[in-house]
Amino acid sequence: MIPYVAEVLPTGSVHLFAGAAGVGKTSFLARLCQALVLEQPFLGGRATRCPAKIGVITSDRPWSDHEQWFSAAGLSDVPHYSLVDDQAFEWGRLGGRVDRMDIFDQAVAHLQLPPDSLLILDTIALFLGGDVLNYDRVARHLGPLHQRCQRHDWTIIGTTHTAKMRVGKEHRYARPQDRVLGTAALVGCADTVLHLAGPVETETALWELSWHPHHAKPGHVELTRDEVGLFEEVVPILLPSVSSEQLARVLSQIPLDDPISTAHLQSKALFCSRATVYRALKLLVDQGRVTQVGRGSWARQPLH
């Protein structure tokens, strides 16, 4: 079966989508579903394919919290079910050692998903036994979820949280997939792990989405948000190499006195090292066309 997003989201398996609370996971999922339905290139220009049906199950918040984003993406009629909104759902069933697959089956039955459907679980933790730190319990639930995907030809994207960390890159794991809150079974038993980092983590004005499939190369894209809050990809300027003049052209797109980081400049000038960017910046500083406004932060100056 052709993946929903080439090389990133193979069908018939369970994927994880991690990020800190409030970083914008629901908004991004709505934008992803929009790209799939319209079969727009996404995640670095990759080909997309529309699922037979998209369904959403929410477990910790009412549907109204999600509706604004899916409506903004033109998907206000997406089939959905919320445990919070279901007045007949007995929350006491979550106690003890109950098998959460019964709860999953009853929830997904509301959506009537045909084969080749995409199912979003927000969040997936409730369907993993209630303790994401317990390897055996998580594996015992992820296994049956995979079996249901194979049996019904469904694909699941389950949202999950990242661990709390102090400010500063020195306090974070280098690999985004290692920041997922929970046992290694979460990453080990899932297929692709996607991670959304916000401006606090990237230390820029941008968001970054990275993906780590088990059987394909990892990748990432930078994102910004439009006027309604949906995510859009930042398309890099492709340069075979970088010189001071080429870097000046990149900087010309930045408003005067608007700081830009060295890492952002490097992402705009692909196929070059940070040292190369620094050499080009030094020439521009010597010419009075750029000034350093902080550690790893630069601003364009007006031409005289």
How would you describe the overall organization of this protein?
This protein is α/β, with parallel strands linked by helices and 304 residues long. It has two domains: 14-233, 3-Layer(aba) Sandwich (Rossmann fold); 244-300, Orthogonal Bundle (Arc Repressor Mutant, subunit A), CATH 1.10.10. The protein is built from nine helices and twelve strands. A hairpin with a 5-residue loop joins strand 8 (219-225) and strand 9. Helix 1 crosses helix 2 (64-72) and helix 7 (244-251) packs across helix 9 (274-286). The termini are far apart.
How many DSSP H or I helices? 9
Spatial ordering of strands, largest sheet = 3-2-4-5-1-6-7-8-9
Please give the largest β-sheet. Answer: 9 strands, mixed
| Poorly predicted ranges | none
The CATH topology of the largest domain corresponds to Rossmann fold
Supply Rg: 22 Å
H/E element order:
EHEHEHEHEHEHEEEHEHHEE
Report the end-to-end length measured between terminal Cα atoms: 59 Å
The top-level CATH class of the largest domain is Alpha Beta
**What is the CATH-assigned architecture of the largest domain?**
3-Layer(aba) Sandwich
| Beta-strand share of residues | 15-25%
Mean pLDDT reading = 84
The total of beta strands comes to 12
CATH homolog superfamily of the largest domain: P-loop containing nucleotide triphosphate hydrolases
Q: What is the helix fraction of residues, given as a range?
A: 25-40%
What is the overall silhouette? Answer: elongated
What structural class do the secondary elements suggest? alpha/beta
Integer count of domains: 2
